[in-house]
Design goal:
It contains eleven helices and 13 strands. With 366 residues, the chain is of the alpha+beta class. The strands form three sheets. Strands 1, 8, 9, 10, 11, 12 and 13 form a seven-stranded antiparallel β-sheet that branches. Helix 4 (144-155) packs parallel to helix 6 (261-272).
């Protein structure tokens, strides 16, 4: 089990600020055709073919003027997706063929003359300036520090029970100290990706104090419910009709597109909707205590398939069932608890969150 130390919200903001200082992130927008792809064994790089026009900008750190950058796996995958080149061919074809094919596609793809967003950072492990993401021209960077600044007023008095800083995403779970019932506390889960791997999401969670389990209020299915906020009045009608009626089936999601100014209004609406999510989730929890599951292990296997869990995640849920059935017996809340307890075996934020979501899915369909 991966243990976590509770923190204050101020400590989380300080950590985000420290990461920003250490990694010194920087963005560069330019046509894709201004770069070339290099590959040496398993190592991939991007080489800038033309210097930026604002090379003398005093705000540009000096180490970004060099022309060749190692790529993360994420950045390489995004590049191959943009030029529609099957990534599995990188290791199957001769290196010269790969370089010829990929660079021809970079120069001749439909997007080659559009400004792509190249996201760089200083890799703390190698101390090299590294390309961490290759994103589209419409992508709006909203980093963790930006998100935390916008949501700060809501979390000043919260306790952080989980903070996960992964290579592709960040996950924060905060709780408030008011008890609901049955040892449950109200909480909120926030996630973000600085490299285009997920939308910003905000959703209610229930925190079970006795075991530290975290249950999301709704299964985060990636649907567009409550995520299409465009800054207009239409979203308020949608929230009144769907959110307050308790019908939204996924967490609130905000895509990294358009003006960042929209984010503040979206956060206010998402936070306003939490009360409905809490009441709905408590009702599901209590109903689940009364709903017997004929074959809990088969139910765990079925939920794992629906949630596309790995074999390792499935085994963690099965192992946790032996412990959780002592508290809950063979009910759907117990099955859900097997996933949220098993989630604590994983250090990677996305793997952990996926397990917690499987618990929420179990309560939704059993």
């Amino acid at each position: 089990m991966v243990t976590q130390t509770m923190k204050t919200w101020d400590e989380i903001r300080e950590h985000a600020s420290l990461l920003h200082t250490v990694t010194r992130p920087y963005d560069h927008r330019s046509p894709l055709a201004q770069y070339a792809y290099l590959r040496d064994g398993d190592s991939s790089q991007m080489q800038r073919l033309a210097p930026p026009t604002n090379r003398t900008d005093p705000n540009r750190p000096h180490f970004y003027t060099s022309g060749t950058y190692p790529m993360t796996d994420v950045a390489e995958g995004q590049l191959m997706s943009k030029i529609r080149y099957p990534r599995q061919l990188l290791d199957r074809l001769p290196a010269n063929n790969v370089l010829i094919d990929v660079n021809w596609l970079i120069q001749n793809s439909m997007d080659n003359d559009r400004n792509a967003l190249f996201r760089f950072y200083r890799n703390p492990a190698t101390e090299e300036n590294t390309l961490r993401a290759v994103l589209g021209s419409r992508y709006t960077p909203i980093d963790d520090m930006d998100l935390f600044w916008h949501i700060d007023k809501y979390l000043k008095n919260a306790t952080i029970v989980y903070d996960g800083w992964g290579s592709t995403s960040t996950h924060i779970t905060a709780i408030w100290e008011d008890n609901l019932e049955g040892g449950l506390k109200r909480g909120i889960h926030i996630s973000n990706s600085e490299v285009g791997q997920r939308s910003i999401s905000i959703g209610a969670v229930l925190y079970r104090e006795t075991c530290g389990n975290i249950l999301p209020g709704f299964y985060d299915s990636g649907s567009e419910d409550a995520s299409g906020y465009d800054g207009g009045d239409n979203v308020k009608l949608r929230v009144n009709r769907k959110g307050y009626a308790g019908k939204i089936q996924s967490q609130w999601r905000f895509r990294h597109i358009g003006s960042e100014d929209r984010l503040k209004g979206w956060i206010d609406l998402a936070m306003e909707d939490l009360e409905t999510q809490y009441s709905t989730t408590i009702a599901k929890w209590n109903q689940g205590l009364k709903t017997l599951v004929e074959d809990p292990l088969e139910a765990i296997a079925s939920i794992s398939r629906k949630a596309t869990l790995t074999q390792e995640q499935l085994q963690a849920a099965i192992n946790s069932w032996a412990e959780t059935k002592l508290d809950f017996g063979s009910c759907s809340t117990g099955v859900a608890n097997a996933f949220t307890l098993g989630a604590q075996d994983f250090a990677a934020p996305e793997a952990r969150y996926q397990m917690q979501n499987a618990g929420s899915l179990a309560l939704s369909i059993l």
